[in-house]
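Support request, please re-run this one:
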Amino acid sequence: VWEDDRLNPHRAEQTLEGRADMLLVWTQTLPRRLVNKATGEDVTAKVPLIYPYLDIETQRRKLGRVKIVERDGQVVKRVLRYRNAAPIHRDARPIKTAPVYSSRSAPAAQPNTKAGYVQVGVFGSPANAQRAARQIAALGLPARIGKQTRGGKTYHSVQAGPIAGGSAQAALGQLRRAGYRDAYLRR
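Re-run finished. Output below.
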């Protein structure tokens, strides 16, 4: 129809791997779950994808490799390498391309649903707050950073959420297992 490359001439070609990727979809509920549309099966713990990625190649190019590991009886997805950065270790330096998290970009809570938040910590250093927010996002939870000024000093509070109703308690447990022992629920 068009001769200016608006349509992909290879659009009808398909592989079995590509078809399997197309059948995966992230839920709109929090925490997000990865579901196979064909079977309705929750494959979040079986597929090494982190929201919002739907294919391994794009995720590897933009985020790094993700490995599924079991820690304290829980299945966890661990990012092994970020783009433009060495493998992550406990003593790793901050990532060069640090994402910015904003409370303005958080999705609005569903009507008649009480959304909760999990307060993770308050940091004097914006870099520490960003690091905590990245770790929360890597767990598959929405993260946000707030700013308050008291006595001339600026503090950055990090929260996971909004999280719908009963899922907030599960998120609290997940964050405590991830090392945020002082995390608590907020409404």
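Residues 83-98 have pLDDT under 50 and may be disordered. The chain has two domains: 16-79, 103-186.
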